[in-house]
């Protein structure tokens, strides 16, 4: 997740991603449509490369230690091998349609909202340039805004990724239809509060860390060095964001997968307490390895691709 020609924080005007500006001249803010297009391209690129790890993450998060029977996964490679061997390679991409469909608006909201919130928090903090505090505040607010849009897509994706639902839903539209018919249209928004927690914490950590990392990296003097800095900052930011938000992601997955009338998990904080009590604190980081393997490098991929697309747009479309 990035802006164009990103080297150091800007000291004059607010770029699209407040912590990521150039050392030369201020970057012109892109119109929302361009943000939409660039964010969508970056997000879909990351999904196509890293999605199998998201499937693995979900399988681990739904794996309850006390559960009797069923297939058990012991590592990322073990899970990947068992899915391919027992269910077929295509299962690694089951449920990919909902995140692909939502990726463009999701990333557009993330970037454009981040810019708007950055301007707002600069005024509220009485500063004329983006600081790390402003960057974190803007990231959290953008994450909350993003979460409000993606909840139904996340819920459908979780249901499709769960192996136990393989015979229950034949595809995305079938899942949506059955959820609405059997659980009501409001069921599509189950886990909204947990999703807000997940995205607010990830975005706050991601943008805040990017700000700090880019200040400390060697100044980029050419495009290759800029790409290097973007990937390093994005990868570290994605890793830190993942460390912070994984417990909320675990309970979000549990809440959204539950299709029963009487639900075991309802709200994020009580659900975290339930998981910790019944399965240990360690259980709150189930799926952490595949998640960090995806969102660490994935954060770098997003930053680099978004930078390249927005640079091209400024050069040829503005």
Automatic annotation (TrEMBL):
Q: Kindly name one Pfam family recorded for this protein.
A: Mito_carr
The answer on whether this UniProt entry bears the keyword Transport reads yes
**What does the UniProt entry say about where the protein is found?**
Mitochondrion inner membrane
Membrane topology is:
Multi-pass membrane protein
* Any one GO molecular function term: ATP:ADP antiporter activity
Instruction: Give the family per the record.
Output: Belongs to the mitochondrial carrier (TC 2.A.29) family.
Listed name of the protein = Uncharacterized protein
């Amino acid at each position: 997740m990035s802006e164009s020609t990103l080297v150091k924080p800007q000291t004059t005007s607010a770029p699209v991603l407040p912590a990521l500006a150039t050392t030369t001249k201020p970057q012109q803010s892109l119109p929302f449509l361009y943000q939409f297009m660039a964010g969508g391209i970056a997000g879909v690129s990351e999904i196509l490369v890293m999605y199998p790890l998201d499937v693995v993450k979900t399988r681990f998060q739904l794996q309850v230690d006390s559960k009797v029977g069923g297939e058990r996964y012991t590592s990322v490679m073990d899970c990947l091998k068992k899915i391919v061997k027992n269910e077929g390679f295509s299962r690694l991409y089951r449920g990919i349609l909902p995140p692909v469909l939502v990726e463009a608006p999701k990333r557009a909201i993330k970037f454009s909202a981040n810019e708007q919130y950055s301007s707002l928090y600069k005024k509220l903090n009485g500063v004329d340039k983006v600081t790390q505090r402003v960057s974190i505040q803007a990231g959290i607010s953008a994450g909350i805004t993003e979460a409000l849009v993606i909840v139904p897509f996340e819920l459908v994706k979780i249901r499709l990724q769960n192996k136990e639902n393989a015979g229950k839903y034949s595809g995305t539209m079938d899942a949506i239809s059955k959820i609405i018919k059997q659980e009501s249209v409001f069921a599509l928004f189950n886990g909204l509060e947990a999703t807000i927690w997940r995205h607010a914490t990830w975005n706050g950590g991601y943008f805040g860390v990017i700000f700090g990392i880019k200040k400390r990296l060697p100044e980029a003097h050419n495009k290759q060095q800029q790409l290097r800095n973007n990937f390093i900052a994005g990868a570290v930011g994605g890793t830190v964001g993942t460390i912070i938000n994984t417990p909320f992601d675990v309970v979000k997955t549990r809440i959204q997968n539950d299709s029963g009338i009487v639900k075991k998990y309802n709200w994020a904080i009580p659900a975290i307490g339930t998981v910790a009590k019944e399965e240990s604190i360690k259980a709150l980081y189930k799926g952490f390895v595949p998640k960090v393997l995806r969102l660490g490098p994935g954060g770098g991929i997003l930053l680099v691709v978004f930078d390249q697309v927005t640079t091209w747009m400024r050069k040829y479309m503005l």
